[in-house]
Amino acid sequence: ARGLASDMTDAVCYAYTWGFLQYLRTTDRGIRRGTALGIARDLRPSSERIATACAKAAADLGFRVINCGTIPTPAVANFGITRAIPTLMVTGSHIPDDRNGIKFHRLEGEILKADEQGIREQSVSLPEGMFSPSSGAFVADSFRLPDYDPSAHDSYVQRYLDFFPHNCLQGRSVGLYEHSSVASDVIAQVLSGLGARVQRFGFSKKFVPVDTEAIRPQDVELGREWGARGGFDCLVSSDGDGDRPLVSDEKGNWLRGDIAGILCARYLGAKTVVTPVSSNTALERSAWFSQVIRTRIGSPYVIAGMQQALRDGARPVVGYEANGGFLIASPIEAFGRQLAPLPTRDALIVALSVLLQASESRQPVSQLLDRLPQRYTASGRIQQFPSALSRKHLASLSSGDPEQDRAAVEAMLGEYFGPVAALDNTDGLRIGFTSGEIAHLRPSGNAPELRAYTEADTPERAVEMKRICLQALESWRT
């Protein structure tokens, strides 16, 4: 559930939470009066108010609310999975702070598309007189969140301190770009707890909408500036709610999320990797994995793909998205220990895996990338672009007639990229050109944005392709 913070009124958030919990009562036998519900939130100005409205709905339904405080989404999800309780996270993730949202988790993890539909179908009657008819705000605000419970925070930190060897990062130096990420403290605690020297910088009291899939130019420059100081093995950061990583090489150049995902999957010994169609094809070209499964974009689709892979066989099964968020579907065995599944996006495991891989191989992070097939991706977005308008234009290129669609795409982009070899409508329109280059056009699933993803044999060409695509897409506004 996501939208403008002004539209996420107390009444709306109360109703969504009530619908979610009411739905769980019909689908999970273990959900009954007195069941605990974990609630966490990010650092946006509106998040505490929204969390309070969610907690009020849960309390009125007879749930016992656990206030997990300001912690990352994977931390509260991990808490729910290990305790076998539902949880929710108040966050707008990477979008600007005039927006916010609620992420819902069942006992076993994220809700999937069928759950979304089930929640929408719930009938909810708001208590008479509880909310202002004009603003949707509570008429009386006497309800407060319970006292903070550190259990979710502590168990997430301990998850990694217990799995990785003691002092395995001894002698490593890491720069932590804090900005306004709710994950900063946790990242610092885990890295330093494993022996790394951590230097923190870039903290912001004002929320910063860091999107790890469309990195802001100012964040690119900050990374290079900090990297130029020397002495860091890498820089690490995450988006606002800590489920999408930013990891750099030793020079402060941020790695693409889908490249970091390949390195993470290899380090963890994965046999099956599930990822959306938009991720870099270096995954298949590396030949490091027994099976690769491609899905639509979005963690629910990746999770569904991982669930199918678990039924089919080859384990360990992991998944990742182009934004770098990494999911673990089956236990990981290493160091004589076991890392439990966490089938929701996580940023911290990526930073740890990349840093440890470099440390164990005694190579800088930049040299890890040399092991991969040289395929480069770029992505960009046009903001404030209505989703309905995006779908309308993409439909004109996806009529179902292959020859007609190929001709339409070539009329739009052929001058720049050459003949079309293949079209894929799995999610938006993914275009493969005879040159081997790829362009993927897709409306965002959670914001009024139109995105372009490109892939080529050099980083310069991928960026140039992105520029051309965005320029072409701007003409769709008229």
Description:
This protein is an alpha/beta fold. The chain has 15 helices and 22 strands. The protein has helices at 10-27, 47-60, 73-83, 113-120, 151-163, 184-193, 217-228, 257-267, 282-286, 299-312, 348-361, 365-369, 387-395, 402-417, 459-474, and strands spanning 2-4, 36-41, 64-69, 87-90, 99-106, 109-110, 173-179, 197-203, 234-238, 245-247, 272-276, 291-295, 317-320, 326-328, 332-334, 337-339, 342-346, 376-383, 420-424, 429-433, 438-443, 449-456. Strands 1, 2, 3, 4, 5 and 6 form a 6-stranded mixed sheet that branches. Strands 12-11-13-14-17 form a 5-stranded mixed sheet, sandwiched between helices. It has a 5-stranded antiparallel sheet with strand order 18-22-21-20-19. β4 (87-90) and β5 (99-106) form a beta hairpin. α1 crosses α2, α8 (257-267) packs across α11 and α14 packs across α15 (459-474). The protein starts with a strand and ends with a helix. The model has no long low-confidence stretch (mean pLDDT 95).
Count every helix, treating DSSP H or I runs of 4 or more residues as helices.
Answer: 15
Number of strands: 22
- Percentage of residues in strands: 15-25%
Weakly predicted, low-confidence segments: none
Mean pLDDT: 95
Largest sheet properties: 6 strands, mixed
**How far apart, in Å, are the first and last alpha carbons?**
30 Å
Structural class: alpha/beta
